[in-house]
Amino acid sequence: MNETRLYQDDASRFGGGGTRFRRVAGTDTDLAALVRLRDEAARWMLARGITGQWRPGELDSDHFRRVAEHGEVWLAEAGGRVVGAWELWWEDEDAWGPQAPVAGYVHRLMVDREAAAPGTGRLLLRAAERRVAEAGRDLVRLDCLAGNARLTAYYLDAGYRVVGHKAGKPQPGGAPKAFTLLEKALPGKALPGKALPGMRPAEKEPAEKGLSRG
């Protein structure tokens, strides 16, 4: 399979014809770009009063190298520059507990807010969803820091739903934190009809209802 061509076609379909996707090769250049994206995203959050989620310097090249070895890390490029990235895991027991192999888990969806075109974040998310579908899995799962209403609203607007909450999820380089768990059934797949094993079902959260993307 020509992964680069496949995801270039996907970018064109969703209005990002100038965006090219490719899997991280583990080179020093790729790893440095990922660290840069992560640190810039952390600074952007802190500048807007979004505290407690990411901090600059938390993740280094070794983190992204390990993820690339055991899962997948994807880069988005436009105009000769890396403008976004995401991690794709095939299991996430720290957040979701032991699960059947029915989902892909998206982590660290990152966008260069100075260089990326509007809508790049949604484009990356759609590409990640397509990759999960290609792997034969029915669901895309992700999490966000509990209390981050703006980010939760972003994922709700993208078709995800809150399915649970996880307290005390281990964090690389920091203390455990609480997270909201979200999932999306891929087209043609039915939503699961029962709570996930070992997880607290999602409570009704009026604060999240009716939120628009910030």
Q: What would you say this structure looks like, in words?
A:
The protein has a single domain, classed as Gcn5-related N-acetyltransferase (GNAT) (Aminopeptidase, 3-Layer(aba) Sandwich), CATH 3.40.630.30. The protein contains six helices and eight strands. The chain has an eight-stranded mixed beta sheet with strand order 1-2-3-4-5-7-6-8, with helices on both faces. Helix 2 packs across helix 3. The longest helix has 20 residues.
- Largest sheet: spatial strand order: 1-2-3-4-5-7-6-8
CATH topology: Aminopeptidase
The figure for the number of domains is: 1
Separation of termini?
37 Å
Which class do the helix and strand fractions yield? Answer: alpha+beta
Radius of gyration: 17 Å
CATH 4th-level superfamily: Gcn5-related N-acetyltransferase (GNAT)
Uncertain spans? 1-16, 190-214
Q: How many E strands?
A: 8
Question: What is the CATH class name?
Answer: Alpha Beta
**Biggest sheet: strands, sense, closure?**
8 strands, mixed
What is the average of the pLDDT values? 80
Second CATH tier, the architecture: 3-Layer(aba) Sandwich
Task: Please estimate the helix content.
Answer: 25-40%
Helix tally equals 6
Sheet-strand content, in percent, reads 25-35%
The sequence of SSEs as H and E is HEHHEEHEHEHEEE
Shape: globular
InterPro entries: Acyl_CoA_acyltransferase, Bact_Acetyltransf, GNAT_dom
Domain N-acetyltransferase: 19-187
Region (Disordered): 190-214
GO molecular function: acyltransferase activity, transferring groups other than amino-acyl groups
